[in-house]
Amino acid sequence: MVHSEPVNLMVSFFLTVGIILPFAYTSYKAKIKNPIASNFQEFTELHHLHPTMIEKWKNHQLAFDADQNKLLYFRQGNYPQQSVINLKEIKNISIQEYTHTSGTGKYKHDVMDYLGVKLQFIDESHPPKMLEIYDGKLFPSISSERSIAKKWLEFLQKQIKMNQPD
After folding, report:
1. Membrane-spanning residues where (predicted)?
2. What does the buried/exposed string (b/e) look like for 152-165 if buried means 16 or more CB atoms within 10 Å of the residue's CB?
């Protein structure tokens, strides 16, 4: 006589493995395709870049490699993001800022929710890339982020103008 508990355990085990295996495989392939560096130094070494200009604030870093004309964006934390952008592929750069009004009457003021640098590619099929400078959901106070965004906007616009043919 066959006991049903060991059979049920075996069926449950194989069903569980069968369900988990595709997710584990997909996750493994994604890690191989886009390896995530644990720090900025490892990120630059992974992509064989040598930044000549670096800006660091809170858990973000922006850098520029003049030799390869590439912009590096590195964000750590709960929502990490790591990007290497070839500036030869960019046609326009702008600042994106979202605010909401808080308070009433004479105490009314604007509160910044989000500040980022938007990169538009020459290839129209490539969606624009947003590089977060400040997110009000993650950090309650804004310090020097607005000046950082303006500084990089001016610098990157000069770099793009140098890349464009006359």
Report:
1. 6-25
2. bbebbeebbeeeee
Query: Residues 82, 87, 88, CA angle at the centre, nearest 5°?
Result: 135
Residue type, 96: Q
pTM above 0.70, yes or no: yes
Q: How far apart are CA 130 and CA 116, in angstroms?
A: 6
Give SS3 for 85. Answer: strand
Taking every pair of Cα atoms in the chain, the longest distance, rounded to a whole number of angstroms, is 86
Q: In terms of C-beta density within 10 A (0-12 exposed, 13-18 middle, 19 or more buried), how is residue 95 classed?
A: middle
User: pLDDT band for position 34 (50/70/90)?
Assistant: low
3, 5, 11, 15: CA torsion to nearest 10: 180
Q: Per-residue pLDDT for 1 more than 60?
A: no
Residue 67 token pair: 């030799």
Q: Domains in the chain, please, with CATH?
A: 50-163 (2.30.29)
How many residues are listed for the chain in this entry? Answer: 166
